[in-house]
Amino acid sequence: MSTLGIVLVAAGRGERLGAGKPKAFVELQGSTLIEHCVSTITALPHGGHLVIVVPEALAAETLSLVSATVEPGSLWEISVTPGGRERHESVRFGIDALHDTANVVLVHDAARPLAPRTLFERVAAEVARTGDSVIPALPVADTLKRVGEGGIVHETVDRSPLVAVQTPQGFLREQLAAAHDRLGSAAPDSSENGPTDDAEVVQRAGGTVRVVAGDMLAHKLTVPGDLMLLEALLTTETG
Ligand code: CTP
Ligand code: MG
């Protein structure tokens, strides 16, 4: 039987947030970002296999944290596995740890703790419907400018074909695994040229990527100012 696989990447250092601990272990209204994600994911119908990728030293702590989060009788099996130096390495370790019964795989950043269940469902359904890779995206609202040396504006960029991309991103497992294997065996990239999301990894391997509507709730925690925004979104959501 084919099931849903989810890789939750939570092994980053959170340097831009500067909270003195890895970002995924920062709390938002009393629960870590990982716990917020796990409670959304384990409420998805049908169940599946969730692999949480964390810094090696925090693996045991993560297991006990999430065991307390999951409702008894949940159809989700949860594993914890250590991450790598770069995000794409962490994703690769997560894919390797997934059961091969998982046909469709979603990769999600723990740094997007409020991404709603409907977004996971929308992405997974579109992968199943099309067989393509699927990413949630929002239109860009701000005016965009290309800026050169000394802060001099060269031009305004046409924003109509541009979108801002979120996670969860969805893939056929075999396609995602093959694309990551190919990246892993290629010459190491300079840090500017490394892929910043999984859709890019699949596209470099020749795969087709399509968008579905994103969700403001999937806002990413990157810098301290994002904490205020996420707190406000969480308060609005939970009343
Ligand atoms: N991530 C990961 N392994 C890494 C790097 C990042 O699992 N080696 C995860 C992060 O935990 C996060 C997601 O990828 O959930 C997006 O990365 P980012 O927002 O850049 O998080 P950090 O790398 O933790 O933050 P920073 O870049 O500020 O250090
Ligand atoms: Mg990072």
Automatic annotation (TrEMBL):
Pathway: Isoprenoid biosynthesis; isopentenyl diphosphate biosynthesis via DXP pathway; isopentenyl diphosphate from 1-deoxy-D-xylulose 5-phosphate: step 2/6. One of its GO terms (biological process) is isopentenyl diphosphate biosynthetic process, methylerythritol 4-phosphate pathway. Pfam families: IspD. PROSITE patterns: ISPD (PS01295). This is 2-C-methyl-D-erythritol 4-phosphate cytidylyltransferase. It comes from Leucobacter komagatae. One of its GO terms (molecular function) is 2-C-methyl-D-erythritol 4-phosphate cytidylyltransferase activity. Coiled coil: none annotated. Belongs to the IspD/TarI cytidylyltransferase family. IspD subfamily. Keywords: Isoprene biosynthesis, Nucleotidyltransferase, Transferase. Transmembrane segments: none annotated. Its EC number is 2.7.7.60. The keyword Cell inner membrane does not apply. PANTHER family: 2-C-METHYL-D-ERYTHRITOL 4-PHOSPHATE CYTIDYLYLTRANSFERASE, CHLOROPLASTIC. InterPro entries: IspD (IPR001228), IspD/TarI (IPR034683), IspD/TarI_cytidylyltransf_bact (IPR050088), ISPD_synthase_CS (IPR018294), Nucleotide-diphossugar_trans (IPR029044). It catalyses: 2-C-methyl-D-erythritol 4-phosphate + CTP + H(+) = 4-CDP-2-C-methyl-D-erythritol + diphosphate. CDD domains: CDP-ME_synthetase (cd02516).
